[in-house]
Amino acid sequence: MTQIDLLPSISMRSAIDRKNLMGALNLAFIILIAILLISASSVAILVYEGTKSESSPVLHKAKWGDTVKVDYIGRFADGRVFDTSIWDVASNNALYPKSLSFTLKNQSEYKPLQFKIGSGQMIRGFERGIIGMAVGETKVIVVSPQDGYGELDKSKLRTLPLIEELPVFEFYNITTFVEKFSAYPKDGLTVKDPKWGWDVICLNVNTFTNEVLVMNTPVPGGLYKIYTDSQSSSQIGWFAKVECVDSSANGGAGIIRVRHLLTSDDAGMIKGIDEFGKTFYLYEVDEKAGNIVLNYNAEVVGKTLYFTVTLIDIL
């Protein structure tokens, strides 16, 4: 009996256990599906959120016809600054060595440059280089001579011998004498030669023939700074040495032999002011050929220019 009673009890309990197990599994499965659905929706939301993007602001770039405001530093190929709109650059020669033509202005004059692209206010290469720049952008604009200040005008080049020979005795008419020496001639008058700086003695004035005889009196072996001004800057003019003075040579006219104390390294590094007040730049020193060349073009003419430009604003 006991066995008979036990069998139904075990079977019944097994059935109940299986039913409970299936229920638990079904519940777990439902929960799992719910979790997966929630997770999937979260992922979908994240994916959707991740694909959303804000449109980037469109940068306004300079174009033809725009009025712009820029800061700039203009340099030659060797790095010397010939122009700038920035006071800290203009006033600092240690960090920003200057070209021969650079002139320091009042601080108040250094400010951003404003101009209309295409108006012809600026050289062509400079304004073309601004096109396409965005506000705040800095770039180096390379400007060829054709797009800058033009090719070198060779008619403004003057060639001199490295060693010059000058007369001891010279004749002037009275008008020419006054123009050169800024004084009216009279016998015994001593004046300074405006180019060489040595004494010139007025030996004879003949008002009937309109002639003035003078004698140049340089000191043999003496050094004379020529093509300079009252500032005596190291970059203005150079020294010439009187190698010999022979008053009896050249048929009695005499010879003064003067050597310009220059080397090829001086080319482009010295400017001068001639006896007529005109500025020139030492263009070439050919020691082998024995020539020097003076350049009366502006310093920027015939050169490739390098402008470091920052676009400050487009107005």
Overview of this structure, please?
By secondary structure, this protein is an alpha+beta fold. It folds into 3 domains: 1-44; 67-152 and 302-314, Chitinase A, domain 3 (Roll), CATH 3.10.50.40; 154-295, no CATH class. Helices cover 22% and strands 31% of the residues. Strands 1, 2, 3, 4 and 17 form a 5-stranded antiparallel sheet that branches. A 4-stranded antiparallel sheet has the order 5-16-15-14, with no helix packed on it. A hairpin with a 4-residue loop joins strand 9 (199-206) and strand 10. It is elongated and about 85 Å long. 17% of the residues are buried. Mean pLDDT is 86; it is low at 1-22 and 24-55.
Tell me briefly what this model is:
The chain is an alpha+beta fold and 315 residues long. It is built from four helices and 17 strands. It is elongated and about 85 Å long.
Structural class: alpha+beta
- Helix tally equals 4
| Euclidean distance between termini CA atoms | 110 Å
Outline: elongated
Order of helices and strands: HEEHEHEEEEHEEEEEEEEEE
**Helix content class:** 10-25%
The tally of strands reads 17
Our estimate of the beta-strand percent is 25-35%
Mean pLDDT: 86
List the helices and strands and how they pair.
Layout: H1 2-51, E1 67-75, E2 81-84, H2 87-90, E3 113-116, H3 124-130, E4 138-143, E5 157-161, E6 163-166, E7 169-173, H4 174-181, E8 190-192, E9 199-206, E10 211-216, E11 223-226, E12 238-246, E13 255-260, E14 271-273, E15 279-286, E16 291-295, E17 305-314
Antiparallel strand pairs: 1-2, 1-3, 1-17, 4-17, 5-16, 6-13, 7-10, 8-9, 9-10, 11-12, 12-13, 14-15, 15-16
